Each structure stands twice: as C-alpha cells, then as structure tokens.
Amino acid sequence: MNELIFACVAVLMTMGASGIALMVYPPLRRHSVVIMPVILGAACLALGAYLLAYLWPSYASPGMLADKLLFGAGLFGGFGNVATGLVIALISAVVAFTLEGRLKRWSVARKRRAAESAGLSFLGFEAPTAAESLQEVGDVAKKPLLFGALSVWTGSAEEFFYRGTVLVASIGTALFWPAFALQAGTYAVSHLAFGWPAILGKLLLGLSFGAAAIVGGMIPVILAHWGYQWLVARQFRAPSSSRKSARKKPSDAVST
C-alpha cells in the first residue's frame, strides 16, 4: 500500500512543484497550460512503470498483469470486456462533462467565483484563478493539433497510471478497494487549480472510469478520455453563423 500512496502523492507533488515554478517565473506562466500536461504525462508514465516493476510482480505474473490491464475482469472475457467497458466509460464521460459544466455555471451564478479561485495565492505570489486557467485551456483548444496532441499524451498517460497501474493491477489483491478510492481521489485533487466544480466532476469521472476499467481494462478508458477531451475542445469552438442563436453556452468543463 505504501508504494501506491507514494506514487499518487508523487504525482500531486510533481504537479504542485511544477506549477509553483511556472508561476514564480512569469515568462513561462502563459505557457503553463501546455507545459503542465507534458510534465503530468511524463510523471504518470514514470510512476506507472515504477509500480509495474516494483509492486505488482509480487502479486501476479507478467502475463496475468498484462491480461488484467488489457481486458479487465468483466464477465464476458477478452474483447467482450473491452466493448462493455467502453460503453460504460463513454456514458460516464458525457455525464461527468455535463455535471461539471452545470456545477461551474451554478457556482458563477451564486457569486462564489472568489471562493473557488483562491488557488495558491496564500504562498505569497500571484496564482491564476480558476477562470484564468479555464481561459488558458480555451486558448489551446482553439489550436486543434496542439490540443489533440496534448490530449492523447496526457489522457493516455493518466489512464495508464490511475486506472491501469494503480487500480486494474490491484484486482484480486487486498489493495483493490484502497486503490479504487486512491486513484479517484488523487485524480480529482490534481484539478484543484480549476476550482471545486472541476474537483467534483473529476471525482465522478475517476470513480466511473475506474468501474469501466475494472470491467474492460485500460483501452476503454483511454478512448473515453480522448472523447472527453474532444467535448472540452468542442465547447470552445466558435459557433457557425447559422447556429449562433441555437447553440448553448459552453459548459465550462475543463481539460483532464
């Protein structure tokens, strides 16, 4: 269990330290929404590899680990598990995206923006508010190739780490339930910069993606994560002139 806690805390510490470093050095601050996902992906891949190398071999053979990571532990076996997990993950992505957007709008309507955006300003330097962080995501989302590359990189790495090497690898061991809670909680807390609606939305997403990964392995949640990112990018696209009056306002759900 100590290895799992260490790995999850290490992800949070890496992101926290990187964020502070970028804020302390102003010229890089405006690039943080690009730099941070790159660092996050690298940290997730490295820590996932650490768990596969030093924790899980004492619980299962490499073949058993690979089978769990690729096909989960559903009732249908093989690609039946993958298909079932994909359905669960895609539905979860849409529900979590919608919920997070509604929570954000409710928060703004209730004039609670200041409370959700305190960020790290108590440390003595200017930290971006949740609104600023969201705007930066929107700016990158308007560059499809860049946003797509970051989404594939970070989404794949996060799912490999959280739902793969933390959760799915723990199936059949005494660490399963602690791992289920740990991956969802850490994933949610890592979105602190975007405010409490993002934390609640990502908590739901982490729990739901966790269930999908248990059934169908990593592939469904990686694909659904990419789909979630597509929804995030889509909300920032300028509406066509023929749809301006009919299109709803962006949901304000944030990138993962």
TrEMBL record:
**Alphabetical list of InterPro entries matching this protein:** Rce1/LyrA-like_dom (IPR003675)
Chain segments annotated as transmembrane: 33-57, 69-97, 160-182, 203-228
What GO biological process terms are annotated to this protein in UniProt? Answer: CAAX-box protein maturation
Question: What's in the keyword line of the UniProt record?
Answer: Membrane, Transmembrane, Transmembrane helix
The terms under GO molecular function for this entry are: endopeptidase activity
What residues does the CAAX prenyl protease 2/Lysostaphin resistance protein A-like domain cover?
Answer: 145-230
**Protein name as catalogued:** CAAX prenyl protease 2/Lysostaphin resistance protein A-like domain-containing protein
Q: What species was this sequence derived from? A: Neomicrococcus aestuarii
